Amino acid sequence: MDHDDRSARGIVRDVSDVDRDPGLNPPSEPGAADVPGQVPAVSLGQGHSSVPVVANHDVVDDEIDDPVFVTEKLSVSYGGAPAVLDVSLRVPQKQITAFIGPSGCGKSTIIRCFNRMNDLIPMAHVEGMVRYHGVDLYGGDIDSVQVRKRIGMVFQKPNPFPKSIYDNIAFGPKVLGMKGSMEQIVEQALRRASLWDDVKDRLDDNAFGMSGGQQQRLCIARALATNPDVLLMDEPCSALDPISTGRIEDLMHELKETVSIVIVTHNMQQAARVSDRTAFFIVDMGSSEEARIGRLVEYGPTDRIFTNPHDIRTEEYVSGKFG
Ligand SMILES: Nc1ncnc2c1ncn2[C@@H]1O[C@H](COP(=O)(O)OP(=O)(O)O)[C@@H](O)[C@H]1O
Ligand SMILES: [Mg+2]
């Protein structure tokens, strides 16, 4: 492996750790997946070289060197029914990538593939390839605890734990046995989420007393506390007012200096404002209602997708003609 092994180091489990796999235990509550259990001893497995990725679908964005994620013909079905088919794309590092498209086109399904959240849905079946810094994320020797430490996730509805502000942030670092002063870890995560000044005098208060926007920034801080390399955000602002939304968008701009961000948004203006690249998905209407299948239509630099889309369906969507 070349450069990419630094970021991917640790997600490949030593074969001897397979039996004590703490990562396969689903989190006890939604959104707890980024607050994993104990850390197994890890080492780089064999056979995880960065295989050159062959573009096998015309929407692959080949302009991106050194992607954080590469998907190849990624398909997900639920209970045997295909939900989204043949998604091939490259997600750049230290940029913001937006997934847009009408409800049900598979945006959440695809973003969940990036930290193996679909593992927690028994009906879900994932096919195709997802590489994270060149490593097959679905390889048999991947430690999903480490995956979710490095690839944090924030959901539509803020979901703080019913604990103090401090304990919300400290929980993940504690179970991971992160070294250093916990006070500093908590302060740094809250500062990175632009929340420190709001809460520094009430760290012991219950997180449920915060406003919705603050709770969402707390969830971002909680994800940042384990020092992730990627932040996945599934409609992170759709439960928030415009001012709180603006603060999260400002925060995303700051965070992309240090983390790669993928955001699902149903709000096209938001995608246009915050993202560097946009992927547009549709629901392909089959012959029957049951045959609705999500597909990636077009992917590229956000300004081009919005001003000069190559596909008529993208043009119709971004100009508000459907969706
Ligand atoms: N947990 C699930 N179980 C069964 N079907 C699901 C599940 N999650 C999503 N789906 C189905 O997969 C398709 C894509 O859904 P989703 O990824 O949520 O789309 P989007 O986020 O774009 O609205 C839909 O048809 C949806 O009903
Ligand atoms: Mg969704």
- CATH fold label: Rossmann fold
Radius of gyration: 19 Å
Uncertain segments are 1-5, 15-57
Q: What is the number of beta strands?
A: 10
Choose one word for the global shape. globular
The major sheet is characterized as:
10 strands, mixed
Q: How many domain modules?
A: 1
Helix content: 25-40%
Q: Provide the list of bound ligands, each named once.
A: adenosine-5'-diphosphate, magnesium ion
Strand order of the largest sheet: 5-4-1-2-10-9-3-8-7-6
Written overview of the protein:
The protein is built from 11 helices and 10 strands. The chain has one domain (5-318): P-loop containing nucleotide triphosphate hydrolases (Rossmann fold). The protein has 323 residues and is of the alpha/beta class. Residues 1-5 and 15-57 have low confidence and may be disordered. The protein is globular. Helix 8 (242-255) links the parallel strand 7 (230-234) and strand 8. Magnesium ion binds next to helix 2.
Short description:
The protein is an alpha/beta fold. Helix content is 28%, strand content 21%. It has helices at 5-8, 107-113, 144-150, 165-175, 182-192, 196-199, 212-224, 242-255, 268-274, 302-307, 312-318; strands at 69-78, 81-91, 96-100, 124-132, 135-136, 151-154, 230-234, 260-264, 277-284, 293-301.
